[in-house]
Amino acid sequence: MQILTPHVYWAQRHGEIYLRVELSDAKVGQSTTSSRLFSGHGAKGDNEYEFSLEFLRPVRSEINHKSTQRQVDIKIKKQEEHWWDRLTLQEKKPLFLAPDFDRWLDESDAEMELQAKEEEKINRISVESRVPYLGLKKGYLFMYNLVQFLGFSWVFVNMTVRLFILGQDSFYDTFHTTADMMYFCQMMAMLEVINPLLGLVKTGFFPAMIQVTGRNVILFVIFGSLEEMQNKPVVFFVFYLWSTIEIFRYPFYMLACIGTDWKLLTWLRYSLWIPLYPLGVIAEAVAVIQSLPIFDETRLFSFPLPAVLGHSLSFSYSLQLYLVLMFLGLFINFRHLYKQRRRRYRSRKRKVH
Ligand SMILES: CCCCCCCCCCCCC/C=C/C(=O)SCCNC(=O)CCNC(=O)[C@H](O)C(C)(C)COP(=O)(O)OP(=O)(O)OC[C@H]1O[C@@H](n2cnc3c(N)ncnc32)[C@H](O)[C@@H]1OP(=O)(O)O
């Protein structure tokens, strides 16, 4: 088979060289610091491709490469941090080589970029040393998120396994098998209202309040206090929808605590709520509606009235008002989450350019 030369684009920083090889679905074969072999789809179809470069100055032997559907990105570290006048030893640039204008910076811009990174690092270190409780805060949030992640994962895995083994029968005893863990997680979740009040997280107090109050009403008042509700299939749907979002949200926060960001996890955290939140509120509304006749019958939590007005006011009236509040709450939090999503993706795009 004929070996062809791909188009290669380059850019540099003081410490590294970036090469972008225009080959789709490429597999990287044998590579040395000066030559590379690929098989992939280029301008002339599926072929073997190879190029070699004699660099202007020495480079380190470890090479990073990443193949994507469209290209191969190669990062090579310079032996010494130094700005190069050109890439290759030979003055005349090889025909297959061109500047990568997406990454291109001239020497002064690259210096400014380096300086900005240094300043950011120094700022971070000085903030961390000025505020000694910062490490404590991160530790607390990390542990909180870890415990919640483990709790909700336990609920999710338990329910999934039971669903596979028992099928629809598992719908009827979700409460008895998972409620203790759900109680624990939900009681812990009260901290999510306190954390923004103490300035520990940037979350708005009101969205967190709506979220926690909404779940508390369902878990403690509707399911917890009415035995008749505990074996209804709606418990399964409510718990499953809650735990599905949380097994992605808490690890996302955990990574945020250690300054890491996994693209897929971030996307799931800021996208899954789009179907899950309305479904969750619908499931909760079904639970509330199913509980109304039970509250009427049992008179549990009913409000005593003066004799002229009747015996007592059923708690179901409060719940009917709550049903309206639920859809108002859904609207407020949906808008909040939508804004968070836009903010996240807008600021990330800005950072990339
Ligand atoms: C006054 C009371 C009125 C009561 C009325 C009641 C009505 C109730 C109606 C509503 C009923 C809803 C019931 C719920 C149903 C469901 O849950 S269904 C399943 C789907 N659910 C979801 O998808 C919602 C999941 N929950 C959330 O997303 C949150 O609870 C939220 C409060 C709604 C929004 O989260 P928020 O924290 O504001 O957004 P983020 O972008 O994730 O975070 C902002 C920044 O803060 C950092 N942060 C937050 N928490 C932590 C943490 N624990 N640890 C570390 N860091 C945290 C986060 O990283 C962000 O930082 P930056 O990235 O730097 O901005």
From TrEMBL:
Q: Which residues are listed as membrane-spanning?
A: 140-161, 238-258, 270-295, 315-338
GO cellular component terms attached to this protein's record: endoplasmic reticulum membrane
- What's any GO biological process attached to this entry? very long-chain fatty acid biosynthetic process
> Can you say where in the cell this protein is located?
Endoplasmic reticulum membrane
- Give the main EC class: lyase
Offer one Pfam family short name for this entry. PTPLA
**Care to name a GO molecular-function term for this sequence?**
very-long-chain (3R)-3-hydroxyacyl-CoA dehydratase activity
| Superkingdom per UniProt | Eukaryota
E.C. designation(s): 4.2.1.134
Span of domain CS? 3-88
Q: Which UniProt keywords apply?
A: Coiled coil, Endoplasmic reticulum, Fatty acid biosynthesis, Fatty acid metabolism, Lipid biosynthesis, Lipid metabolism, Lyase, Membrane, Transmembrane, Transmembrane helix
Keyword field contains Transmembrane: yes
Kindly tell me the pathway this chain contributes to: Lipid metabolism; fatty acid biosynthesis
Task: Report membrane topology.
Answer: Multi-pass membrane protein
Catalytic activity field: (3R)-hydroxyhexadecanoyl-CoA = (2E)-hexadecenoyl-CoA + H2O; a very-long-chain (3R)-3-hydroxyacyl-CoA = a very-long-chain (2E)-enoyl-CoA + H2O
Q: Does the keyword ATP-binding apply?
A: no
Q: Which InterPro entries does UniProt cross-reference here?
A: CS_dom (IPR007052), HSP20-like_chaperone (IPR008978), Tyr_Pase-like_PTPLA (IPR007482)
Report the coiled-coil segments: none
Function statement: Catalyzes the third of the four reactions of the long-chain fatty acids elongation cycle. This endoplasmic reticulum-bound enzymatic process, allows the addition of two carbons to the chain of long- and very long-chain fatty acids/VLCFAs per cycle. This enzyme catalyzes the dehydration of the 3-hydroxyacyl-CoA intermediate into trans-2,3-enoyl-CoA, within each cycle of fatty acid elongation. Thereby, it participates to the production of VLCFAs of different chain lengths that are involved in multiple biological processes as precursors of membrane lipids and lipid mediators.
To which protein family does this belong? Belongs to the very long-chain fatty acids dehydratase HACD family.
Q: What is this protein called?
A: Very-long-chain (3R)-3-hydroxyacyl-CoA dehydratase
Query: Which organism is this protein's natural source?
Result: Seriola dumerili (Greater amberjack)
